[in-house]
């Protein structure tokens, strides 16, 4: 295929995409129409849609881990629906519209990639990331950012899921030299936090128990960051492993599963582990 043919093919695909996007805009406005729209959609707000944004994001992430292309495509559509609904709510409230979102995004892409859009220049991955951060944190683009590192981080993580907030904190502070030197160092800290939780449990202080548990979780997430492990992916695999083993326990226990003693469950659990290990070997 010639370069000209490839260009025409891409151009036709882009035009088809634009037409589909026009239909999508019409469909969203129809959903939100004050007279004929969907009763549920008409009463939604930015805040009420937050749980659905979390849910759709999680389902998209699951599809990536499962490597199912059709699911990835479908879940991306569900995420796009969330963006479109928020854009329409913003338009109804006269705050912003879809065009404002797209224009701001285009401006950000162009501003943060000067080596592509201002002066063509090949740069390394490290340099591209440094350029991105420098422009992102510059006064021109982030005049609202506090000068304090901690205040800046508080602003950035306040609406993030806690695990993502911890990852953001860890990545930022280590740029300033506040970082772990080895995994053993983190294990020492983890052991310290576990002992503090044990003491809190022994004293039956609910507030201390919650705080110490949070410290353990925070330290574990620091360990995953240090080892470059995605904690969500690891936990997802462990959830599946647990349910695979529990399904075997169910098979052995049958209708008597509620009558099993802790000792029975321990024995059946070992059987399940051995059976799965044989199947995987």
Structure description:
- This protein is mostly helical and 281 residues long.
- The protein folds into four domains: 3-107, Orthogonal Bundle (Helix Hairpins); 113-145; 149-232, Helix Hairpins (Orthogonal Bundle), CATH 1.10.287.1080; 233-280, no CATH class.
- 75% of the residues lie in helices and 0% in strands.
- It is built from 13 helices and no strands.
- The protein has helices at residues 3-31, 39-42, 50-66, 69-92, 98-112, 114-117, 125-136, 149-157, 162-175, 183-203, 206-226, 231-253, 262-280.
- The model is unreliable at 140-145 (pLDDT under 50).
Helical run tally:
13
Give me the CATH architecture of the largest domain, please.
Answer: Orthogonal Bundle
Q: What's the main sheet like? A: none
Supply the CATH superfamily name of the largest domain: MazG-like
Radius of gyration: 26 Å
Low-confidence regions? 140-145
Number of domains: 4
CATH level-3 fold name of the largest domain: Helix Hairpins
**H-E order:** HHHHHHHHHHHHH
